[in-house]
From TrEMBL:
Protein family membership: Belongs to the carotenoid oxygenase family.
Co-factor requirement: Fe(2+)
Protein's UniProt name: Dioxygenase
Keyword Chaperone tagged: no
Organism: Methylocystis borbori
């Protein structure tokens, strides 16, 4: 395994080190007590292996997908992790060397070894429970299906050949039970295809032709629309397909073009609508909803792709400098005129991984949970979990410094009919001093108080990206 950087230089970087072992054990090292209401399973997905043959991968998104499952039951916590058995993971593990292209990596052998070869599906970005299957998601291709009980890989899930690309951020409507997602496919035209999954299976909604090839990661679901903010981070498909660069190397920011707000009717009827505004980039939305003839979108907004692109490209040795990183921003789009108003919430710098109460996806809500840093901190991965009252603008934070680095916060309601802030916020926190990870539970109503519990694992979990909590016990 590649040795992590010296802790004094980038103390958070040890959290990117690969974890080769697959573990299965009861967590014994726990401070505090787990609430009786917290029963279920937390699934987390991310790059578990970030290096091979003594060298770091060129990009964080190249890592092999590894799923962690944390079971909360009456006896305590149980941890299990398994790698997704993709071709990339199985074959590169066997050979001990790079065999496939990736988001940033290239096959050895130059242009001819890479031309006309697609990136390998590493299934490393998110996880979504769909019936009796756990889907691991990577938007460049179809998901993999896992057994949620054992995390054994069952195989690729392309819904009977109906999908190619499938985003890492499907949205579940808590009222109708419908699951929506999309995929972007590149060719002579770049098309965005929406999907709806309900009791009748998967339905392809009418595809939308995009004006140019772009990278887009997330969307918002409202009562009537699927909404996208398509920033001008453009791909050069020819450069990539001919083997002259990785997908990451074929991306460039074109600040002379607008960001396009794209509205697609979720019933599949009616044409799409594009609304232009000043250029910006975003990976993730917190939520969105419709009210009084307007569309409200809350997102982690970057001024462009330059700073975040560089940080992801140099992940294990990046300063993660606060300049150019995201701010939690509300856009209010007048649906009659197309006029857009913008409001920035006052949080710490480097906002990412916004989440809300899953019962309020696509509906008016009050609280968003984010990872950010203390005000004035100029560099480093996020060390705080912050709750933002999007009505008043008030914030409250839990700071895990000086050694703790927090991942995506996930809100778990305490009762099905409880208040919006009545619940537990779960997060993985990497301790750079001990070089291991803890599962931490915070009281959503007293986020700045002592954690409800800190469950320390026997090892670190490489920084994960996204996850999902279910009340089902696996």
């Amino acid at each position: 395994m590649t040795a992590p950087p010296a802790p004094g230089e980038w103390p958070w970087s040890a959290g990117f080190s690969s974890l080769a072992a697959e573990r299965d054990y009861r967590v014994e090292d726990i401070d505090g007590g787990m609430p009786a209401s917290l029963r279920g399973t937390l699934f987390r997905n991310g790059s578990g292996r970030n290096d091979l043959a003594g060298a770091w991968f060129p990009h964080w998104f190249d890592g092999d997908g590894m799923v962690s499952a944390i079971r909360f039951d009456e006896t305590g916590l149980h941890y299990r992790n398994r790698y997704v058995r993709t071709d990339n993971y199985v074959n590169e593990t066997r050979e001990g060397r790079i065999l496939y292209r990736g988001f940033g990596k290239m096959r050895p052998g130059g242009v001819l070894a890479n031309a006309f070869r697609q990136p390998a599906n590493v299934s490393n970005t998110s996880a979504a429970l769909l019936g009796e299957r756990l889907l691991t998601l990577w938007e460049g291709g179809p998901p993999f299906a896992l057994d949620p009980r054992t995390l054994a890989t069952l195989g690729v899930e392309d819904f009977g050949g109906k999908i190619r690309a499938f985003s890492a951020h499907p949205k579940l409507d808590p009222v109708t039970g419908e699951l929506f997602n999309f995929g972007i496919d590149y060719g002579r035209k770049t098309t965005l295809t929406p999907y709806r999954i309900d009791s009748g299976g998967l339905t392809r909604l009418p595809p939308v032709s995009l004006p140019y090839p772009v990278m887009n990661h997330d969307f918002v679901l409202t009562e009537r629309f699927l909404v996208f903010c398509i920033g001008p981070i453009l791909a050069n498909p020819l450069k990539f397909m001919l083997g002259f660069s990785s997908f990451d190397g074929a991306l460039h920011w074109d600040g002379g073009r607008p960001t396009l707000i794209l509205l697609i009717p979720r019933d599949g009827l009616g044409p799409p609508r594009f609304i232009e505004m000043e250029p910006f980039f975003q990976f993730h939305f917190a939520n969105g909803f419709e009210e009084d003839g307007a569309l409200v979108l809350d997102l982690a907004r970057y001024p462009d792709y330059v700073a975040i692109g560089d940080a992801l490209r140099n992940f294990w040795r990046s300063n993660f400098a606060a300049g150019g990183m995201a701010a939690l921003t509300r856009l209010r789009v007048d649906l009659s005129s197309g006029a857009v108003e913008s409001r920035i919430f006052k949080t710490g710098p480097a906002v990412e991984f916004p989440r809300v109460d899953p019962r309020l996806v696509g509906r008016r809500y009050r609280y968003a949970y984010i990872a950010d840093n203390p005000p004035g901190r100029a560099r480093g991965l996020q060390q705080r979990v912050t709750r933002v009252d999007v009505e008043s603008g008030a914030t409250v934070s839990h700071d895990f410094g000086p050694d703790g680095y927090a991942g995506e916060p996930i809100f778990v309601p305490s009762r099905p009919d409880g208040e919006e802030d009545e619940g537990v916020v779960l997060a993985f926190v990497f301790d750079a001093a001990e070089r291991r990870t803890a599962v931490v539970g915070l009281d959503a109503r007293a986020l700045d108080a002592k954690p409800l519990f800190v469950a320390r694992l026997k090892h670190h979990v490489p920084f994960a990206l996204h996850g999902q909590f279910t009340e089902r016990l696996f």
